[in-house]
What we know:
This protein is α+β, with helices and mostly antiparallel strands. The chain contains four helices and 30 strands.
Amino acid sequence: MENKSILNLKRFIALLIFLTLIIFGGRGNVVYAKENPLEKDSIYEVPVDFDGLIMGTNNFSSKVKIEVDKKFNYYMTFGHSSSISNLKLITGDKESGYTIRTDSGWTYYTYTLGLENLSNSLNFKAYISAMNQEASFSIKVKLDSANRISDYVDIGERPAEFVPVIKANGGNVELEKGTVFMIPEAKAYIGSDEAKVNVKAYYNDLEIEVNDNKIILENVGKYVIKYVATSSLYKTNYGNDAFSSYEVTILSKVGATTLAKFDDKSNALPEGTILQASKIEDGKAYDSVAEKMKNISDNYSLINIVYYSASGEALTPKENVTLYFMPETYLDRNEVKIYHVSSDGEFVDVLSSPFGRYVKADTNLTGTFVIYTPGVEFHMPMWGYASIAIGAVLVLAAAITVPVVIHVRKKKKEDLEA
């Protein structure tokens, strides 16, 4: 016959496994009623389930506002503190359309959602300042606990549920007054589906003419290139095509900062070639590089390099030319290294050396270059903060438990002596 203590131990282990499955297996799998708990023409306040977020819940809204219009379109407002930035809602390979506003140091995004996605886990990406990197997390909204607070108010056109993501081959730049600026190529996609991109140029908010895909910086001031992508795959609440926009700013000035220049001693490029260097500070290209750089460097900048012929055709050097990059002031020129980002997003080392105020490299590559100094400060990962918190709780529990045990044992000893 099996020993009674062993049998009890087996029962305890089985019970422990069962409870573990109940507690942890059920987390993140909230099942909502099949019936839609939200009525049309209504605004609700709905609590958030943060099971998909280990730490930092105080940096996010504990409740979301969900607006339901007369056609059963859904708009969810979710906010974060100043410790968070660049919040994106991702469903599969698509980004949700949103509007944005700030209030008292908090940023609020109003996302357009379908009921199916609203009822499931919502997957986000955001830049976490304390970690100095992008992080992914998920939340759920407890639709079965929705509290109706008012009627819906029509505030105008809302973005489509999914919108095009624009990828532009260039970024913001300072150029000398009188320079010819070639407008960088841009493409846009919703998931794997390409969207149409239109381009317009503005000087001090007034539209100017674009000829042969270029503009001349005739005046001192701010020029803006605005890309607008549209797709008929998804519609706004007004029935218009899904759309998104992206802007590149050109500051035209006398004595502009030169991001890069080149020396073509081998005649690898035709006479009259111009180099256009721009700084990439946001967008899909930047996000992709930033994700890879988080374990390589805290200090880096992205510069896009394109050569153009006098007629405006993009060129690739037949042989190496000498490129001179102007690093950011926070980069030590004696420590600077350079990566080139290939078309498939891989980093390729580019041999470089300091040259006065510049860093030079002999290469025939074009596109995005990462100018960086190696080194990453230690940043506590989110699970690290959780471990510390759990450890503190256990230590506190031990501190409370030990005196009780000592007291009990002492009491038993006194009883024996009596």
